[in-house]
Amino acid sequence: MAAELKQCQSISKVFGENVRRYRELAHISRFQFKAEAMLDDRQIRDIENGTHNPTLLTMERIADTLCIPLSELLSETPEHTTFSLSVYQQGFNRLSPSMQSLLLSIMRDFMSNDEIE
C-alpha cells in the first residue's frame, strides 16, 4: 500500500512538472490557463507542485489546453521541448487581419533567413 501511494505521488509530481514546463514553454499565463482549462488558482498551483491528484477529465482538459498528448504530460522523459504553432492559433485568430498578415510576413522572413544559414 505504501509503495502504491509513493508511485501515485511520483506520477502527480511528474504530471505537475510537465504541466508547468509546457505551460511556460507556450507562454500561457496562469490566468489564461485557468480560463481555458476551467481550473481555479489553487488547482493549478497544487497540480503544478505535484500535490493534487486531478481526475482524468481534468488531465484531459489540461492536455487539450496545452495541445499536448496526455501521455506526454505523464511521461518521465517528455519528448517535446518546443510547441507546434497550433498552440498559438487562438491568439492569432484574435488579431486583426492586418496584424495577422504582418506576423505571417515576419515569420516567413525569419524562416527564409534561417534556411540560408
Describe it.
- The protein is elongated.
- It has helices at residues 2-25, 30-37, 41-49, 56-66, 70-73, 89-94, 97-116.
- It contains 7 helices and no strands.
- It is 70% helix and 0% strand.
- The chain has 2 domains: 2-79, lambda repressor-like DNA-binding domains (434 Repressor (Amino-terminal Domain)); 84-117, no CATH class.
Short structural description:
This protein is mostly helical and 117 residues long. It contains seven helices and no strands.
Keywords:
0% strand, mainly alpha, 70% helix, 434 Repressor (Amino-terminal Domain), 2 domains
Low-confidence stretches: none
What would you say the CATH architecture of the largest domain is?
Orthogonal Bundle
Provide the number of structural domains.
2
User: What is the approximate shape?
Assistant: elongated
CATH top level of the largest domain? Mainly Alpha
Overall pLDDT level? 81
How far apart are the termini? 57 Å
Largest sheet: none
Helix percent reads over 70%
Helices and strands, in order, run as: HHHHHHH
* Class from secondary-structure proportions: mainly alpha
Rg from Cα = 17 Å
CATH topology description of the largest domain: 434 Repressor (Amino-terminal Domain)
Q: Find the count of extended strands (DSSP E, 2+ residues).
A: 0
CATH homologous superfamily grouping of the largest domain: lambda repressor-like DNA-binding domains
How many individual helices? 7
DSSP strand content: under 5%
